[in-house]
């Protein structure tokens, strides 16, 4: 496997020709989340042993909610009212923020960024790993819009998000 050199201002590392994500900037889960998530994973594993033909993936709304809880802890975001259509949070600096969460670890596989192409003021994409999480992207939504303008879907791959994240200037991030 050949590793890609990551810029100093980036946390996202990955192996170019393999499928293993390098957890170079993996952060531990906040304690409030870690214990409950371990309980969920234990229950999932028990179901998998009982029904090995089924995946029992922890995905969908639950994974999104876990990512949003991490974003509240990590970025100090304030949840907007449920009727907000495009953004879920407000940052301390007043920016509107959308948070997306994935468990995808294969660099070439897509990360869903919504059902349709939407332009977010600021986008944070969180990748859940077995023992922590990484921020795949923290930057202006317009950066993602440009990257997916030629695509039919609203998704980008883990690798694309990591590469885009490397182009974000420090002053454009929520976490400096």
Notes on the structure:
By secondary structure, the protein is an alpha+beta fold. The chain has one domain (13-26, 59-172). It is built from 4 helices and 9 strands. It has helices at residues 31-50, 61-75, 141-147, 158-166, and strands spanning 13-14, 21-22, 78-79, 89-90, 96-102, 110-111, 122-128, 133-140, 156-157. Strands 3-4-5-7-8 form a 5-stranded mixed β-sheet. It has a two-stranded antiparallel sheet with strand order 1-2. It has a two-stranded antiparallel sheet with strand order 6-9. β4 (89-90) and β5 (96-102) form a beta hairpin. The longest helix has 20 residues, at 31-50. The protein starts with 12 loop residues before the first strand and ends in a 10-residue tail after the last helix. Residues 1-10 and 14-23 have low confidence and may be disordered.
Distance between the termini: 31 Å
Task: Provide the residue-averaged pLDDT.
Answer: 82
Please trace the helix and strand order, writing H or E for each element. EEHHEEEEEEHEH
Structure classification: alpha+beta
- The counted number of beta strands is 9
Determine Rg (CA atoms, Å): 16 Å
Helix content: 25-40%
In spatial order, strands of the major sheet run 3-4-5-7-8
């Amino acid at each position: 496997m050949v590793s890609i050199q990551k810029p100093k201002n980036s946390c996202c590392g990955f192996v170019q020709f393999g499928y293993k994500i390098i957890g170079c900037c993996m952060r531990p889960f906040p304690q409030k989340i870690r214990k409950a998530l371990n309980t969920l994973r234990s229950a999932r594993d028990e179901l998998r042993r009982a029904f090995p033909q089924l995946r029992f993936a922890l995905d969908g709304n639950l994974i999104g909610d876990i990512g949003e809880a991490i974003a509240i802890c990590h970025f100090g975001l304030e949840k907007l009212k449920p009727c907000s259509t495009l953004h879920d949070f407000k940052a301390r600096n007043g920016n509107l923020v959308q948070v997306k969460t994935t468990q995808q670890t294969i660099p070439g596989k897509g990360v869903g960024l919504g059902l349709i192409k939407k332009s977010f003021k600021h986008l944070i994409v969180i990748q859940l790993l077995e023992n922590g999480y990484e921020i795949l992207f923290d930057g202006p939504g317009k950066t993602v819009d440009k990257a997916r303008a030629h695509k039919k879907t609203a998704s980008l791959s883990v690798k694309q998000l990591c590469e885009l994240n490397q182009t974000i200037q420090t002053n454009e991030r929520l976490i400096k």
